[in-house]
Write a structure and sequence with these properties.
about 180 residues, alpha/beta, Rossmann fold, two-stranded antiparallel ribbon, 9 helices, about 20% strand, globular
Amino acid sequence: MAKQKNIILGVTASIAIYKSIDLIKLFTKRGILVDVIMTKEAREFISPLFFERFSKRKVYYDLFNSTESFDIEHIALAQRSKVILVAPATANIIGKIANGIYDDLLTCVIAASRAKIFFAPAMNENMYKNPIVQSNIEKLKSYKIEFIGPRRGMLACGQEGLGCMEDIDKIAKHVIDYL
């Protein structure tokens, strides 16, 4: 019997957050278990209940949450997943990881994991093209973190530009091909 495939979907605060639910649907349809980790800011956009509904699993978001077991949650999550996909990935999460800032559950899981990491950026074009953001992206690429997108499209500010999260089919294909 084949081992169950398990991924972590890191969800950060972007208007593209709704696409993350569609990613969960694509993965679960293929029999992949999805553990969702939401940042505090992401929970301002959407309730964890939406992600629990579609993943049929607990959503994680608190680094110091009391657990039902004696596992250290961020270590246990990091060890059971072969892939971590951060989608949408904001400039904030990219900057934190690039500079070794591990101050929430998602960043701590990434720090503790040996899994393959994918980022699907979503932000305003000016933010994406900012030299600091580009430097952080290049730094993460040097650590073998893969970036999927972004693409050109209609941005949250109402302008057309580079910064839209890549199409979910393309994101899912990258992850599934890796698995």
